[in-house]
């Protein structure tokens, strides 16, 4: 998978929008590793929740030219940046300023990806709309992730696949258990240690 | 905002709103951007849509010309139909305006082509 061009982005905007980092690229690497599986499923609509700069969904759109991409972010500046990243790389995408995926009709997306705010913080640190929303995850670094988990069965098509980046502090096993109550199977696609952070990408499907 | 996106958006997470669909479109700036035509892709999208909602949205923007109100059975082979659908789904873009919840009247602004669907805590179910 190719890395999208980012030279259209004004570096000063990264004061307001999460700058692509190791976790972003791990998620792209996970999608690349799973590309054959994705191509076989012929996804029509792909969604990235909390798209930030838009590099991940744009990379996916470049790899799946027969899919249409969508992105949401609670931060309007991130929505604008995602849109411009898609345009810069000739990817067809619509960007929506939305909390997670709360404003979509059910069962539309074949692929949903999420690189959540996963840093363990106090509860009152998460829930904002600015750059802090890109990392502050509250208790276990899971408060935002857990809200999305319960929406996944409604957002995904019956054959859809959900890719989620986590760190060990988030207790991935609990996430697997929550998703299994909705009859989702899970796999670890890729893991990587970055400084003191053990990052991994999980995949959920029925 | 493309009309394919409008086809998927709802205000049902507003407190007291049951379906919140379809949202009415009020546009003050509509653009038509050229997008490469891929007939197979359009044919794949059609069954995933609420066609009536698409038609009404296109009509409200003055872009329903040539678009049938009902999808005919053999649409995959009809190049002219697929081209018209392609334009309405992917090329017509609402740049500025707002969406309106059909039940509560709550308005969602569209700025630089991006709908703002954020709700305040008091508005959420």
From TrEMBL, chain A:
What are the coiled-coil residue ranges? none
SUPFAM superfamilies in UniProt: S-adenosyl-L-methionine-dependent methyltransferases (SSF53335)
Query: Which keywords fit this entry according to its UniProt record?
Result: Methyltransferase, S-adenosyl-L-methionine, Transferase
Q: Name one GO cellular component term.
A: nucleus
Keyword Coiled coil found = no
Q: Does the keyword Transport apply?
A: no
Instruction: List the GO biological process terms.
Output: methylation
The Methyltransferase small domain covers which part of the protein?
34-121
The Swiss-Prot or TrEMBL record annotates one GO molecular function as: protein-glutamine N-methyltransferase activity
Q: Where is the signal peptide?
A: none
- Similarity annotation: Belongs to the eukaryotic/archaeal PrmC-related family.
- By its UniProt entry, which NCBIfam families does this protein fall under? hemK_rel_arch (TIGR00537)
Q: What protein does this entry describe?
A: Methyltransferase N6AMT1
UniProtKB/TrEMBL annotation, chain B:
Q: Which subcellular locations apply to this protein? A: Cytoplasm, Perinuclear region; Nucleus, Nucleoplasm
User: Tell me, what's a Pfam family for it?
Assistant: Trm112p
Enumerate the UniProt keywords alphabetically.
Answer: Cytoplasm, Nucleus
Zinc-finger among the record's keywords?
no
Q: Mind naming one GO cellular-component term on file for this protein?
A: perinuclear region of cytoplasm
Predominant subcellular localization, coarse grouping: cytoplasm
Keyword RNA-binding attributed: no
Q: Name one GO biological process term.
A: rRNA (guanine-N7)-methylation
GO molecular function per UniProt: protein heterodimerization activity
Protein family (similarity comment): Belongs to the TRM112 family.
| Name of the protein in its database record | Multifunctional methyltransferase subunit TRM112-like protein
Protein's organism: Bicyclus anynana
Organism lineage reads as: Eukaryota, Metazoa, Ecdysozoa, Arthropoda, Hexapoda
Name the gene that codes for it: LOC112044959
């Amino acid at each position: 998978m190719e890395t999208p061009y980012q030279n259209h982005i004004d570096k000063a905007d990264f004061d307001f929008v999460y700058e692509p980092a190791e976790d972003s690229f791990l998620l792209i690497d996970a999608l690349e590793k799973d590309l054959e599986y994705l191509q076989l499923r012929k996804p029509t609509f792909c969604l990235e929740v909390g798209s930030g700069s838009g590099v991940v969904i744009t990379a996916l759109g470049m790899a799946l030219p027969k899919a249409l991409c969508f992105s949401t972010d609670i931060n309007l500046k991130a929505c604008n940046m995602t849109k411009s990243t898609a345009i810069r790389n000739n990817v067809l995408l619509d960007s929506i300023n939305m909390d997670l995926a709360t404003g979509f009709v059910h069962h539309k997306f074949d692929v949903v990806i999420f690189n959540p705010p996963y840093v363990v913080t106090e509860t009152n640190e998460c829930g904002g709309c600015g750059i802090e929303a890109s990392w502050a995850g509250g208790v276990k670094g899971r408060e935002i992730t857990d809200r999305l988990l319960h929406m996944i069965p409604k957002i995904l098509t019956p054959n859809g696949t959900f890719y989620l980046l986590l760190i060990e502090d988030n207790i991935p096993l609990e996430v697997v258990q929550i998703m299994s109550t909705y009859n989702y199977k899970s796999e670890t696609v890729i893991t990587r240690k970055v400084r003191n952070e053990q990052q991994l990408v999980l995949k959920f499907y029925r | 905002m493309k009309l394919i996106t409008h086809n998927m958006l709802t205000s049902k997470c507003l407190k007291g709103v049951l379906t919140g669909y379809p949202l009415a479109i009020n546009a003050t700036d509509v653009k038509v951007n050229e997008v490469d035509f891929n007939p197979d892709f359009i044919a794949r999208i059609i069954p995933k849509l609420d066609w009536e909602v698409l038609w009404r949205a296109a009509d409200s923007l003055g872009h329903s010309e040539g678009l049938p109100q009902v999808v005919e059975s053999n649409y995959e082979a009809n190049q002219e139909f697929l081209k018209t659908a392609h334009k309405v789904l992917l090329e017509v873009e609402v740049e500025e305006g707002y969406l309106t919840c059909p039940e509560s009247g709550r308005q969602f602004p569209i700025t630089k082509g991006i709908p703002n669907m954020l709700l305040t805590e008091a508005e959420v179910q």
